[in-house]
Design a protein that fits this description.
single chain; mainly alpha; 2 domains; two-stranded parallel ribbon; 10 helices; 2 strands
């Protein structure tokens, strides 16, 4: 969560405390915030809801650990659903086509794993390991509050070849909810995830010369 989420977070916690006949002090709210800040607000809300609906522990006011336990399940569920969407797209649309998913985290994870074309080069024997890596990376992004930067599109082989040869590229294939996919497209970036630049010789010499003298 971001600092801008604090007011809404405190409202949710105070409402939860009211439900259990408790009062949330400023100190308790600060402790909750420190414990839960690494998660996104939607996941916290979902974790609280799952706790309250649990027949074994839901009658007791939750502690941060109770909510975190359910958040782990919710992020796993989200990761499995996201992977199912990617798996279907690879098998039905293929990685020759440029695609846009309706979830920016999918774009970030696929990019981190080498890109859309690279994903399509994996064998069936490799596929379970690819799925596990995807799910772990996806859960990591979810617990950090989502993907702050991600590629606008996942470029397929056709677009790569057409761009190299100076040909026009076709619009991407939208995967999932078309409206959400358009938002992902407009909110993404064309910049490389990792930038590269060469250091100037003078700067390099200025840094390395004292090290050489000591050696």
């Amino acid at each position: 969560m971001q600092q801008s989420d604090f007011d809404q977070f405190s409202q949710i916690l105070n409402a939860t405390a009211d439900l259990y006949g408790k009062k949330m002090s400023d100190m308790a709210l600060a402790l909750w915030w420190n414990a839960m800040q690494q998660y996104d607000l939607a996941a916290v809300r979902d974790g609280l809801s799952r706790h309250m609906q649990n027949p074994d522990s839901g009658q007791f006011m939750p502690k941060p650990a109770d909510v975190i336990k359910f958040i782990g399940g919710s992020t796993q569920d989200a990761a499995l659903l996201a992977w199912a969407k990617v798996d279907r797209a690879v098998r039905s649309v293929g990685t020759y086509q440029t695609v846009v998913f309706d979830d920016p985290i999918i774009h970030a994870v696929v990019s981190d794993m080498g890109g859309w074309v690279s994903l399509g080069s994996k064998t069936e024997d490799e596929w379970p390991f690819v799925a596990r890596e995807f799910e772990n990376r996806y859960r990591g992004y979810r617990t950090q509050g989502g993907a702050q930067e991600y590629p606008r599109v996942l470029v397929g082989m056709y677009e790569t070849q057409n761009s190299r040869n100076g040909f026009m590229t076709e619009p991407p294939v939208m995967i999932g909810d078309a409206g959400a996919a358009k938002q992902v497209l407009s909110g993404g970036s064309d910049k490389p995830r990792i930038g590269f630049s060469r250091m100037e010789t003078a700067d390099y010499q200025e840094i390395i010369e004292p090290v050489r003298r000591i050696a």
